Amino acid sequence: METIAYLILTCLTLCWCYFASGRDKRVLFIYIPWLIFISILSYFNFFKNTTALPPRFLVAVLPNVFFIWVLVKKTKLNQLNIITLTSLQIIRIPIELFLYAWYLNKTVPISMTFKGLNFDILMGISALFLTIYLLITKKIPKKLLLGWNVIGLLFIINIVTIAILSAPIPFQQFAFNQPNIAILFFPNTLLPAFLVPVAVLAHVLSIKKLRGS
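-> structure tokens emitted (213 positions)
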């Protein structure tokens, strides 16, 4: 049941990202093959080898830097809807619930949850209220939204750092008793390979829209 819920969240996020980008077909052309590719690698346990150098997990993460660059570079301002981009961050609520479930299953440390050092659930909740506010008032408080998106990026940097340093790879620094192993398994690998990068993309596109409009 958890796997099905996780895959549903992934599909919803892809659709959400597509609409938030102004129905830019590049989103589908990039992410559908990418999701299939990463899912196959993850399903056949490619990422379970944590001793390989360079770490195999870079395969799931580094291409997203290029994907984000392409989509930010090519997407036009008039395509973007700040309300949809803001609402996309609501996905961080279910993501945090999954992380907490993984913690209970002893596959991530408590520091990666809202009971530890992960504050992302605040972004998800605030995204919900901001979306409601924007829909009702039709007003775009640019300075507020700019600051909120910057904070959202900082929160992502925070949890990504914790996740990397608590993973069972050669440069692990903490959480040795309960390391971050959940993301080594299918479909959990889609968190760093897709869900987190999409949250980053939404923040960067929002900043682009707010600064350019």
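The chain has a mean pLDDT of 91.
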